[in-house]
Amino acid sequence: xxxxxxxxxxxxxxxxxxxxxxxxxxxxxxxxxxxxxxxxxxxxxxxxxxxxxxxxxxxxxxxxxxxxxxxxxxxxxxxxxxxxxxxxxxxxxxxxxxxxxxxxxxxxxxxxxxxxxxxxxxxxxxxxxxxxxxxxxxxxxxxxxxxxxxxxxxxxxxxxxxxxxxxxxxxxxx
Length: 174
Description:
Layout: E1 7-10, E2 37-40, E3 50-55, E4 60-62, E5 67-81, E6 88-92, E7 98-104, E8 108-116, E9 127-128, E10 134-135, E11 140-143, H1 165-168, E12 171-173
């Protein structure tokens, strides 16, 4: 057993066969030389959290059929597993709120949810619907060490909320 924070020396002979390389959980080569390598072993127990929600789309007015790429930014890289279900983000879009499906970004710190404006959607400043707007739907969002992400969002209706879509962008849905 190697204790958390311990430094160990690993003897390693470099291989040209990629299946025999020593790799970390992200698939990166840890040792790439034929000499010994010191490795610090760390037990990552820190849960990834949501840093902000924004959009890569420009500040503008969007109409039926237009796509707004909403981004949920985490404190570290996360992996999305959709085999059980696809995560969604509920947006405040007027009379009918829209649940937007996860589109891309696994193994990075930024997940993209592509929102297509539909007839009847209306928002003077697009934002997510609530603190529980990100729903896993039996999918998972975890960091590279396997820690489950905390998916609670800042309260978008609070005057003191920062880092929501409406705080970072000026996106009008008309």
